[in-house]
Structures are given as structure tokens and as C-alpha cells.
Amino acid sequence: MTYSEARLSLLQEARSAQVSLLALQPLITKLQGFWQPPTSESEMAKQLDGVWELLYTSKPALERSGLDTLPGLERGRTYQAIESASGRVFNLADLAGPFGLKTTILVQAKFTLSNIRRICVQFERTAVVTGAIADYGSPAEAIRAIDRGAGWGVRLATDSFGTVDTLYVDEEVRIGLGNRGTLFVLSRAA
Predict the structure, then answer these.
(1) For the whole model, what pTM was predicted?
(2) CB under 8 Å to 133, separation ≥6 — which residues?
(3) Is it the case that residue 21 has pLDDT exceeding 80?
């Protein structure tokens, strides 16, 4: 299997509704074999910068908050934006509830790179606001608007720490492994 075939297969599998870690693991291993990791933190930061859409996670994205288990609540699209110049990372998720209620969650954190591949994240605050990401525009526009205080909802200070090891990254695909063992497959958002 060539590099291009492995990457395309991973993206197709990660986007499928019935994806399993068992199906993804050989593709991830294959891509890692082709990957030449950056040799400096600044090079890695350039590759990580941007807005990424979550295609697959081995654990529900909102599991720690309990929101993934509430009856009648469905998680929609989830994004992550990394801004290495400011040292900030944002996680953005859509939720759909009963009666067409739409909610967006924005989690803001500071990050640093450690050992080139490890992202160390200090979570700072969370906003849970009405409306879907699309109501704010693109994911990047939603992040900026909610970060500036747009939307009616709840904003809470958050104080927790985590890490994500970059297993693979290129111009289109990012694979990470969180400190709690969660695997993430993301694609660069258009």
C-alpha cells in the first residue's frame, strides 16, 4: 500500500459510521512508517496550526462532562483550532437536543509543545451557548465570536491539564493520542 492509498483509506474509514479502532490501527501504523516528523518545535507548530475537524475518537468527545450520555442529546460536528502564535487551542462541538435545541460548546486552553510531538494543554474556560456552529458562520468564526462573548449561555472557568502526543500529521490529516488513551483522527477543515 502506498502512502497516498494509506492516507485516503484512513480518511474514508474514519469518516464511516461503523468505524472501529481495529480497522484504523493498520492504516495508522502504515502512515507512521512513511512519516518524517518535524525536527523542531517551530516546524511542528506550523504543521499543527489551523482548524481541524474530528473524524474519529476512540472515546466520546464529551464523555468527561457527561453530555454524551444525556438522553435525547446528540453530538454533531467537533473541531479543534490550534493557534501556535498565541499558544491557544480551542475545542468546539455542536450538540442537538430535543425540540430542535442547538448548543455549541467552546473549550479554551493554553498549550505548549514538549519533546516536539507532545502538546501540553492547560484548560482555562468553557462556554456552553445556544445556537449551532453554522449559526456563527465557519468554525473559525464561531470560535472568535464565542470567545469574544457572543451567544447566550454559561461560561465557566476550567482548570485541568492534559497532553496529546502527535502520532502523525501532514497538510490534511492529524492523528493524536491523549494522555487518557483516547485516539483522535482529524482532517484539516476547509
Answers:
(1) 0.88
(2) 76, 77, 79, 92, 94, 104, 139, 142
(3) yes
Name residue 108's beta-bridge partners.
Answer: 90, 125
Contact 127, 146 (CB under 8 A): yes
Q: Which residues pair with 126 in a beta bridge?
A: 107, 156
- The pLDDT score that the predictor gives to residue 46 is 94
d(CA 127, CA 76): 16
As a dihedral over the C-alpha atoms of residue 6, residue 177, residue 141, residue 151, rounded to 10 degrees, the angle is 140
**CA distances to 60, 85, 120 from 116, in Å:** 27, 16, 11
Write the CA distances from 85 to 8, 91, 129, 142, 160, integer angstroms.
30, 17, 27, 19, 22
Q: Contact 101/153 with Cβ under 8 angstroms?
A: no
CB neighbourhood size of 55 (10 A): 22
Q: pLDDT tens-digit profile of 74-91?
A: 778 999 999 999 999 999
Instruction: Show Cβ contacts of residue 10 under 8 Å, excluding neighbours closer than 6 positions.
Output: 24, 27, 28, 31, 173, 185
**What are the tens digits of pLDDT across the range 107-154?**
999 999 988 899 999 999 999 998 899 988 999 999 999 999 888 999
For the chain, domains (ranges, CATH) are: 40-188 (2.40.128.280)
Q: Sort 138 into a burial class: Cβ within 10 Å, 0-12 / 13-18 / 19+.
A: middle
